[in-house]
Amino acid sequence: MHRSNAIALCLAGFVAPTLGVVYTNIADIKGLDAYDFVIVGAGPGGSTVANRLTEDASNSVLLVEAGGANDGDITVDVPLLCTRLTPNTPYDWNYTTIPQAGLNNRVVPFPTGFGLGGSTSVNCLVYTRGSSADIDTWAEMTGDEGWSWANMLPYFMKSEKFNLPRDGHDPTGQYLPEFHGTEGVIGVSLPGFSRAIDDRIMNTTSELAEFPYAIDMNSGEQLGVGWVQALVDTGARSSAKAHLTGPAAARSNLDILLHTKVARVVQTGATEDGVLSFRGVEVLDTTDGSFKTLQAKKEVILSAGSVNTPNILMHSGIGESALLSSLGIDVLVDLPSVGKNLTDHVGVSSTFIVNSTKTWDTIIRNETLLNGWLEEWQESRTGILVDTSENHAAWLRLPDNATIWETHADPSSGNLTAHYEFLFQNGLNSVTESGNYLNLPTACVSPTSRGFVSINSSDPFAIPLVSPNLLNEEIDLLIVREAIKSARRFMAAPAWDGYVLGSLNNNATTDEEIDEFVRNNAVSFFHPVSTSSMSPKGAQYGVVDPDLLVKGVEGLRIVDASVIPRLPAAHTSGPVYAMAERAADIIKAAYAAS
């Protein structure tokens, strides 16, 4: 029996949460101009806003998604199978970067979720917010105190449905309840199954002062080693689809249109003072290959993500005029910042050979064991599969006296913000013939490299050009190098005596050798932001104002990761959920006042 067949066997009886009114044919919707809001993209931005706007029965919403429902595959729902969802799967747009100079001209995957939930249906579930200083930079860069940590914390908590670990253990001392919400939509939980390395990790925080224990990395003070909080609800993945189930599913004012790709937003008029209105969305009707235009009564909201949102804008004639003109695209709004400032985390895994059989490697090469765990998860949502690939994470800084500061400025948002992260994975996620391993991804989480999303064709469905310019700036490489050294010091603590037998993939010793290892193996950590960035109202740079309305136009707003002006030292689902919660309130207030 192949492993994929083993997983398929456990699908019997699996029931996906009920969605509301779902269409797959544009001819079946209420009408091309029947909705107040047309939202493009059902990721954490679009799904959150669709849910919150339709809490008011006077608002009607059509949520347009290029992919499908992402139902019927247990791999999407089992947390520990998360690494199987990208790249090169039906749940991913399957984008890659252009050759990256900082990676020795390698082309690397750039996963972007495809289908309901967007990237929250394919990510590896780690829930983090960043430091308070990270979020405060949003307020500083936009001139809007509403985007500060103090004002955003209630939105983080509003989105969250914290639920207790599945194994029933008392989580006291593993998190701070006062920083978490329990009545939101998106599940967040602590590890619900102990792993063989957990005690060693915790003992190391007592043995080495360099690695203090952090009780809650989501309290605004993130530094240290702590328990991972994951996007898990009662043992299963909690994605943005949760915003489309439950109460939302019963609403007659929320419709979902699947398998419908958007070509562009369309100008529908202009105000008396000449400001162009964009309340149209041109979509491909797959039944006959024609294009149809949806028209919103109030707004079009782009929530297609950090790659697809700027791609749609540029094909709509909104972007850098010289680029658009060179491709024969009519320039409607010269907005040079569209697609610029792409920022992402970058890192690499070091894999240690360990003296233990209690790792994930043992399970995934034994189909009987794997099937047993799958059956337990299916029956009770308990066991090893209820958690993501790590129970602990570290968020750490280079020391203040590091020689790096003699030649480089501190790239972080402040002295309580991490420069680097590492994760503790008890085994590899790829099948090996023998051996047991501990995998330790290390990443620069305060990067200075900036890239872009661009186009080289007037075909709206041509693959966009993606270049995060990973390791383009020397300090990013230096931080990853120092993170690797830090991880090695962690693994040399007394707690690991006799456990680590050697390295599987990284025996580099000199700085030069480590740097070459990094350039040859580093990848995106899949946290892209800032390609449609917020800036102060009236600023001649940026793409949206602090209220997320696109600059220089009317009727068009963006609610997704692309508007985040600075990448926090965090996995980005949590920040996008919080941002979308505030966006929904901004939109509601705008129409309540009109």
Helix segment count?
Answer: 13
Helix content: 10-25%
- Beta-strand residue fraction: 15-25%
Identify low-pLDDT runs: 1-13
Number of strands: 28
What structural category characterises the helix and strand content? alpha/beta
Q: What's the story with the biggest beta sheet? A: 7 strands, antiparallel
Q: What's the N-to-C terminus distance? A: 62 Å
Radius of gyration: 23 Å
Give the overall form.
Answer: globular
On the 0-100 scale, what is the average pLDDT?
95
Explained architecture:
The protein has 594 residues and is an alpha/beta fold. It is 23% helix and 18% strand. The strands form 8 sheets. Strands 6, 19, 20, 21, 22, 25 and 26 form a 7-stranded antiparallel beta sheet that branches. A hairpin with a 2-residue loop joins strand 7 (232-233) and strand 8. Mean pLDDT is 95; it is low at 1-13.
Salient structural properties:
594 residues; alpha/beta; seven-stranded antiparallel sheet; six-stranded parallel sheet; 13 helices; globular; disordered N terminus
Layout of secondary structure:
Layout lengths: L2 H7 L11 E3 L13 E4 L3 H10 L7 E4 L9 H4 L54 H11 L6 H11 E3 L23 E3 L9 H10 L16 E4 L4 E2 L2 E2 L16 E4 L4 E5 L2 E2 L5 E2 L2 E6 L4 E6 L3 E4 L2 H11 L2 E2 L1 H6 L6 E2 L5 E3 L3 E9 L5 H5 L2 H14 L11 E5 L23 E4 L13 E8 L6 E4 L10 E3 L6 H18 L8 E4 L7 H11 L1 E2 L28 E2 L1 E3 L14 H20 L2
Parallel strand pairs: 1-9, 2-3, 2-15, 3-9, 4-5, 12-27, 15-28, 16-17
Antiparallel strand pairs: 6-20, 7-8, 10-13, 11-12, 13-14, 18-23, 19-22, 19-25, 19-26, 20-21, 21-22, 23-24
Helix pairs in contact: 2-13, 5-13, 11-12
